[in-house]
Amino acid sequence: MKEFLGVFISCIIICWIITFFFAAYLSEHIYILAAVFAFFLAVFITILIKQESRLEEVERKLENILTNQQDSEE
């Protein structure tokens, strides 16, 4: 949850900065749209971060299995 909040806050700040510069081209409820967009962006980024950590864990387990298998063959 801490990772998600950090990612969400950084996404919302980035979206608000972009909104500040391009608000003339968008609708009048732009800050609500920016917050919703930042939320979905933060969810997506958090999912990618979690998948990366899971992949690293699987790689470590696979390396352990391979080293154990090689040790047992010798």
SSE arrangement:
Elements: H1 2-22, H2 30-73
Helix pairs in contact: 1-2
Transmembrane segments: 7-24, 30-49
Keywords: Membrane, Transmembrane, Transmembrane helix
| Total domain modules | 1
Beta-strand percent range = under 5%
H/E series, N to C? HH
Contiguous low-pLDDT stretches (5 residues minimum) are none
Shape estimate: rod-shaped
Averaged pLDDT, please? 81
Number of β-strand runs? 0
Q: Supply the helix-strand structural class.
A: mainly alpha
From the structure above, extract its key features.
mainly alpha; 74 residues; 0% strand; single chain
Tell me what the structure shows.
This protein has 74 residues and is an all-alpha fold. Helices cover 88% and strands 0% of the residues. It has helices spanning 2-22, 30-73. Helix 1 packs across helix 2. It starts with a helix and ends with a helix. The model has no long low-confidence stretch (mean pLDDT 81). Keywords: Membrane, Transmembrane, Transmembrane helix. The chain crosses the membrane at residues 7-24, 30-49.
Concise summary:
Keywords: Membrane, Transmembrane, Transmembrane helix. With 74 residues, this protein is mainly α.
